[in-house]
Predict the 3D structure of the following.
Amino acid sequence: MNPFEENQCSLGRFQEVSYLKILYRKLFPPLFTVRIKSGEACLANGKLTTSFLGDCTEIARKNRIPSGWIWGCSSPGGTRLEFSSEISKRDRQRFRNAAGVHRL
């Protein structure tokens, strides 16, 4: 197999993973969606406490997060947070800590 054919195979796997993520979102929609824009967190979809949104805004401003998305998904252990790529791993943990305080 030449290198060009190998790249085609890996692109196919990437498309397959993307398709599975979209299918998963359709079958199991998030409980809530938070959008961060210009350091301000606002609820885009679902229900959420205003105190958690306030904490999200505070975290976004302190850590200079200009934009991003947070999804709250149901899991057997409770609500699991998923993040867009604009939010760093360090900042993700801050949001998880805030969610633990508010018991989402």
